[in-house]
Structures are given as structure tokens and as C-alpha cells.
Amino acid sequence: MVLMPEHSHSMPPPMPLRPIASPSPSDQPILTKAAPTPPGRRPLATLPKAQLHLHFTGAMRPRTLVELAVEKGVRLPPHLLDMDPLTVPADARGWFRFQRAYDAARVLVRTEDVMRRLVREAAEDDAAEGSVHLEMQVDPTSYAPWVGGITPALEIILDEARASSEATGVDVSIVVAASRIRHPLDARTLARLASQYAGREPGTVVGFGLSNDERVGSTAQFGAAFNIARDAGLASVPHGGELLGPSSVREVLAALSPTRLGHGVRSTEDPDLLKRLVDDGIALEVCPTSNVHLGVYPDIAHVPLPDLMAAGATIALSADDPLLFHSRLLAQYEAARDVFGLSDEQLAELARQSIRASLVSFDRRRIWNAQIDRWLANEP
């Protein structure tokens, strides 16, 4: 197998080790801090919800990033420390800027302790935001060189997912994701590995994904890998319909038979396609801040969340890469409330849809839906 990092065309060279005086971890934001709750509204941090689209390195806390960089004497590039998509000009956004930042952050993830820390802190942050379930997406080949191979890399993450689930009360499961920029045979290897750990409980692999720049490679060439994963009972959860439009979504539907679609917001550009997604019950992992940061839409108000809701789509709001976007799951719900004017009842329905789209047992969904009922029953 050719070992190349997720979200990247090649392994970035080691960053120079130089003393750094700034920034300090305390300069970085705490992303779980809730915005003020408007009068007459229920606090969104206590709304039970599921996070179904969160990348491994991209889940790192900004403060952890700086702390690790200081420990290793690594000078972080300025673009990694100031990534607010609402202040970056629209013509300066895009995949290349995102990719450079992701690569720079991943250089710091080279030990088992750091890998475990990322899982644990992600679970803690989701717990602080009211999440009851987290599905974290990872390509273990990105970390394999530092821990002895792809199998140890995945087992470390799964073991910490189990431990963090017990410690935080957030059920943490894993989606193994192949990368579009590597050979499809590598994806088959990952699918076979993921299949060995398939399950529906915390600390198991629940799905198989396809990530990275959707403009690269042929979707159909990854069909064999998804067949392997599907035969093992893993859900098909590839990316599609963010950087490219409806035609790419149709390719994903034809080649990978998705259970859920990572993003999928561009399906609104083709009403017939959107109707097909709704009729087939294919849930969409909608990450509004990602759409803005990557230049798909100029601001949150242009993200077609209301159109998706009006069409009857199953929507799972998610954060994607909080480290790079400085925005976690709670902020996506706050935007739905404050930008789109959704009521508490509508927000509760979005939370139900995220749970409905999650890859867990019926009993767990029933428990979490009852918790949403109690949230709505409480007076604002």
C-alpha cells in the first residue's frame, strides 16, 4: 500500500523545528462556548443530537493544536491560526487553502497519545454541546507510519472510542474513509480492514466513506471497495455534492449506493435529483460552515438548508473540521436558529433526523428521541 495522508496528494515535508514565542494556547478559542440563548428559546447546548460528519485531525481543539506545536517547537503557518470563513474573502477561500492547513495540523499527530487525545477531546466537546452520539471519520493510513501500520492505527482509535464513550456518555463510533486521491486498490485494503471491526456499538466501525477533493479521481473505481464494506454490514457514507454539483451526486448514487451523503447540498440545484434522495431516504450530512469556508456559498444565509428542509430531506447537521473552521456542532444549530429563524420545534426535528440517520440500534434511537421530547417539554 502506498501510504499517503488523507486530504492530500503527498506527504508534506517535516515542518522546521524552530523556537516560537507565540501564539499561546490561551489565544485560541474554546469552540464549545455557546452563544447567548435568545429570550423565550431553549438552550441548544442541552438539545440531544448526533454528530455524523467529523474528521479525525479536523476535530482537534485549536488550543490543543497550539499546545502540541509549542511542545514540538513547530512554527504554525499563520493561515492555520486565522481561519474564520466569515472574514476570509470569498475569492481566497477554497480547497487549496483548506488542504494546506489540514496537512500542517496533521504533522503534529504522530504518536498514540496524541491520537487518543484527539478522540477523547472530541468526545468531551460533543458532550459539552449536548451530543449523544458521534461518528468520527478517519483514514488510518495517514497515521500508520508513526504507530506501526494501518491496523494498529485503527485499533488505537477504536480502543479510545470505547474508553471515551464510557467516560463522557457520548457514544463514539468510527467511519473508515478511503481517499479519492489514492489508488482504488488502497481503498479495498481499507474496506477489508474496516470490515474486521464492523459493529453498531461504541468503539466499532459503523461505516465506510470516501473523502478528499471530490473533483479528483473516478468515483466508479471505488465501487469494489464499497461492495466489500457493504458485504460486511458497513453503511456507505461517501462525500459528494459540495465542491461539485448534481452530476457528481448522481455518480456517487450509481457507483456507491450511499446510505448517507457527506454534504450533498448541491443537490438542490437539480429538483429531480433532490426528490430522488428524499424518496430513497438518503440522509445528508450538512455542514454549513464548511460550505462557506470552502467558497461554495458566500455566507451562511446562502446555504440551502431551508430548501432541503422544504423538500423533506433527512438532514444531519455536522461540523466537518472544527479546527479549521473554528465552528463546532453547536454553532451549526445556532446558525439554523439565528440565521434561518428556525423554531425550537424545527431544531428538535433536525436533532431527531440526525439520530434517525445515525448508525446505531433502534433502542438507542428510542432513548435519545425520548430525551428530545423532554427538551421540548421544558419551558424556555
From TrEMBL:
Q: What Pfam families does the record point to?
A: A_deaminase (PF00962)
- InterPro entries, sorted: A/AMP_deam_AS, A_deaminase_dom, Ado/ade_deaminase, Metal_Hydrolase
Sequence segments annotated as region (Disordered): 1-41
Record SUPFAM superfamilies: Metallo-dependent hydrolases
| Required cofactor(s) | Zn(2+)
Positions of the Adenosine deaminase domain: 48-373
Give the keywords, sorted: Hydrolase, Metal-binding, Zinc
Superkingdom field = Bacteria
Family according to the record: Belongs to the metallo-dependent hydrolases superfamily. Adenosine and AMP deaminases family.
Can you name this protein?
A: Adenosine deaminase
